[in-house]
Amino acid sequence: MNYINTDALPSFKVFPLSLEIVKAIKSNGQDDFGHEVIEMLATGKGPCRLSLQPFKIG
Question: I need a surface site. Which of 10, 14, 34, 53 has the fewest CB within 10 A?
Answer without folding.
Answer: 10
